[in-house]
TrEMBL record:
The protein's annotated pathway: Signal transduction; phosphatidylinositol signaling pathway
Alphabetical UniProt keywords: Hydrolase, Magnesium, Metal-binding, Multifunctional enzyme
GO molecular function: 3'(2'),5'-bisphosphate nucleotidase activity; inositol-1,4-bisphosphate 1-phosphatase activity; metal ion binding
Protein name as annotated: 3'(2'),5'-bisphosphate nucleotidase
Span of the signal peptide: none
Amino acids binding Mg(2+): E108, D170, I172, D173, D322
Enzyme nomenclature, EC number: 3.1.3.7
Amino acid sequence: MSLNCLRFVSHSLKKPPSFHLSYLPSSSSSSSSTVIVAMSYSKELAAAKKAASLAARLCQKVQKALLQSDVQSKNDKSPVTVADYGSQALVSFVLQQEIPADFSLVAEEDSKDLRKDGAQETVERITKLVNDSITSDGSYNVTLSTEDVLKAIDSGRSEGGSQGRHWVLDPIDGTKGFLRGDQYAIALALLDGGKVVLGVLACPNLPLTSISAAGQLSPDNEVGCLFFAEVGGGTYMQPLDGSSAVKVQVTAVENPEEASFFESYEAAHSMHDLSSLIAQKLGVKAPPVRIDSQAKYGALSRGDGAIYLRFPHKGYREKIWDHAAGCIVVTEAGGVVTDAAGKPLDFSRGKYLDLDTGIIVTNQKLMPLLFNAVRESIKEKAASL
Ligand SMILES: Nc1ncnc2c1ncn2[C@@H]1O[C@H](COP(=O)(O)OS(=O)(=O)O)[C@@H](OP(=O)(O)O)[C@H]1O
Ligand SMILES: [Mg+2]
Ligand SMILES: [Mg+2]
Ligand SMILES: [Mg+2]
């Protein structure tokens, strides 16, 4: 194997950049030759952090108003919808401003319902939220029209895939948590050639210190975390208010008796009975920690818990925006993310993840034990049906 070329992409970062080495087939006539491309995604990462942080502020504002209002019932989805759409429009706008070339976004929401009769007032509310966010940031001297906002939302209609670069966005992950005033996340990742190369998770309600039972609460119970990871560069966490970042690592726990596990808050999203069977087989003593959204991946990346188990009910198809950012945040912190057959998640097949039964996440040491417990438990559960 010969090394034909080494290309470094320019960057601007205070922190030393990380480079991801990828082997590409050479275009030279020799079929055995290979090109090594050293990629840095620091410009894209900076744009993603900016977009997710601004969207987090927009969501915080809407959640605060929602919780203060005693008129809106908890089942009223409209404020959530406004925040989902606003977050998606804002992230799309910021990314297109910062990285205009070959823009492609795979995102959860679209403007179909907003273009129906009677939605004009909602669209105006979203537009005001987005413009207020742009104004308060101060870096872009523009005001978006309602049509600009609808177009920004619809720019998330890309199908993704294994070729080229695609942003992947969940503008609010954990909608139900958002409604309850609990955890939610703005989850943004970048795919390059079908692989996740960077991820950002803004978790506005996640405490800055550990949420594990043994963890110390920060003095003022401060909340608001921004996790970010670039392939080959590790995972970092910083407060959403912008103060400095620290490198994070998954837990080093090797004994399952000392491990704790995360799962969905909503039982409709994951089979809690299967998780408890797995935990029992492993010898896990602590009760499950149930929190909403990809905040689970963030918390796991800094060692708050050791395991994340997710087993959707039969027929549910996982979407890439529910896992792309979380996956790289955990793997760059030293963790392992696979499906229930032990295969890495494949983000290259469009909007959906094509996986076996569920998703399991833990550190390298615990994975073999966890994997065996998962296989046995799935078999046992099937036999009992
Ligand atoms: N039936 C079913 N099974 C599995 N997963 C589902 C299901 N329905 C929805 N979803 C997706 O779950 C996302 C929320 O993530 P979590 O399950 O981790 O959080 S929660 O505890 O439910 O709040 C949630 O993301 P958001 O829609 O962005 O909130 C959904 O994409
Ligand atoms: Mg989601
Ligand atoms: Mg969502
Ligand atoms: Mg949703």
